[in-house]
Amino acid sequence: MKESTRVRNSEVAAVLYEVADLLEIEGVSFKPRAYRRAAQTIETLPEDVAALYKRGELEDMPGIGKSIAAKIGEIIETGNLTYLEQLKKEVPTGVEDLMGVEGIGPKKALLLREKLKIESVGDLAEAARKGKLRSMRGFGKKTEDNILEAVERQQKSPGRFLLGYILPVAQEIEDRLRGFPAVEMVSLTGSIRRKKETIGDVDMIATSAEPKKVMDFFTSMPGIQKVLAKGVTKSTIVLTNGLQVDLRVTERTQYGAALQYFTGSKDHNIRLRGLAIKQGWKLNEYGLTDEEKGTVIASVEEGDIYRALGLQYIEPELREDRGEVKAAQEGKLPDLIRPADIKGDLHVHTKWSEGSHTIPEMASTAQGLGLSYIAICDHAKTLAIARGLTEEGIREQMREIEALNRTLDGFTVLSGIEGNIDRNGKIDVSDAVLKDLDVVVASVHSGFKQSEKEMTERVLTAMHNDHVDIIGHPTGRILNDRPPYHIDLSRIFRTAADLSVCLEINAFPTRLDLSDVNCFTSREYGVRCSIGSDAHAKENLRYLAYGVATARRGWLEKGAIINTMGAAELTAWLRS
DNA sequence: GCCGTTTTCGGCCCGACTGTTTTCAGTCG
Question: Does the N-terminal or the C-terminal CB of chain A have fewer CB atoms within 10 Å?
Answer without folding.
Answer: C
